[in-house]
Design a protein that fits this description.
It holds the Pfam family PhzC-PhzF. It is a single chain. The chain is an alpha+beta fold and 351 residues long. Helix content is 23%, strand content 31%. Strand 9 and strand 10 form a beta hairpin.
């Protein structure tokens, strides 16, 4: 069966998300849980540590067992269903939201397993997330006509995520300027920006992301040259990951029709730098929508691997605003995850 090395293995894939070709974008491992109760959280965490990717996505079917019409095919529900469970683990912890691993999971279902659903819905710690197919031309239009490198003419996937608007007022007490000291906001800004400073500072409580906007006119090359020391960055935040889980450093423009560029550092989650971060764009989209006066934007996360992202801030008369994040994905590894006897049980986790 696709993605499995033997009948006893769990299907495992390695996907480059927000990429048009291998070895770009952000890699994520995707594990398909073939039945309920097979994995406990301890085992999921151990698998994520073994994969050693920034995130590993675990996809589950809503009910136990194989589809009655699947003819014994353990992947039948993944091929035919439209709703799935989804959880994300870094090598050290579970996280409430991960954009690139969501895109990777949808890519596996759509492209590797041939799921023909118009949209796939994932039930997650951040609520229900929806992923739809989208053609590159539509994404370019959504980006205000910009066409940053990264689509390569491939069909894209559009993720429907919650909007996570940041603000200066939302800064927790330990990060407010009046806190002072090396553990306060100034230390974080100094380490994260390499002394460039920040024109604007904002914070998104749901994900504990700190957004630092570089001074106007800062060239993209200066953002790309940043190399914050992970240990110094982690030590600069008071309370460790209790207050900050990640720092977004961003700049307006960036050339080639881009509205903004960014990088994302998260040593508190065991991620020195995330190559391309979907959840960060749930923070960036409302921030730049207000700043630039537009809702459709083209962006690029300029880590060493890099990745193109198109975002749209959608508001409705009823309901909370949403952020649509679009990007491509490429499969680099197909295989099977061999579990030792007892894995998923309390005994297996303790062995």
């Amino acid at each position: 069966m696709a993605g499995s090395g033997s009948s006893g293995d769990l299907p495992l894939f390695l996907i480059d998300a927000f990429a048009a070709a291998p070895f770009a974008g952000n890699p994520a491992a995707v594990v398909l849980e073939l039945r309920d109760g097979l994995l406990d959280d301890s085992t999921r965490q151990r698998i994520a540590a073994e994969m050693n990717q920034s995130e590993t996505a675990f996809v589950s079917v809503p009910t136990a067992g194989v589809d009655e019409n699947g003819g014994g095919d353990p992947l039948a529900r993944f091929r035919a269903g439209g709703a799935f469970g989804l959880r994300w683990f870094t090598p050290t912890t579970e996280v409430p939201l991960c954009g690139h691993a969501t895109l990777a999971a949808a890519h596996v279902l759509f492209s590797e397993l041939g799921n023909a659903s118009e949209a796939i819905h994932f039930d997650t710690l951040s609520g229900r997330l929806t992923v739809r197919r989208q053609q590159p031309a539509a994404a370019a239009a959504a980006g205000g006509g910009g066409s940053p490198a990264g689509a390569g003419g491939r069909a894209l996937l559009r993720l429907d995520f919650p909007s996570l608007p940041p603000s200066l007022a939302a800064l927790p007490p330990g990060l407010r300027p009046e806190a002072g000291g090396d553990g306060g906001l100034e230390a974080l800004i100094r380490v994260a920006t390499g002394g460039l400073g920040a024109e604007a500072v904002a914070y998104s409580p749901p994900v504990k992301y700190l957004l630092l906007l570089l001074p106007k006119g800062t060239p993209r090359a200066a953002l790309e040259a940043l190399a914050p020391d992970p240990s110094a960055l982690a030590a600069a935040a008071p309370g460790g990951g209790a207050l900050v889980s990640g720092v977004i450093v961003a700049a307006e423009g960036g050339g080639a029709g881009l509205d903004f560029v960014s990088r994302f550092f998260a040593p508190w989650m065991g991620i020195n730098e995330d190559p391309v971060t979907g959840s960060a764009h749930c923070v960036l989209a409302p921030f730049f929508a207000e700043r630039l006066g537009k809702t459709d934007m083209a962006a690029f996360q300029c880590s060493p691997r890099g990745g193109a992202v198109w975002v749209r801030l959608e508001t409705a008369a009823a309901g909370a605003p949403r952020v649509c994040v679009s990007g491509g994905a490429v499969t680099t590894v197909r295989g099977g995850l061999a579990l030792p006897a007892g894995s998923g049980s309390a005994a297996g986790a303790a062995s």
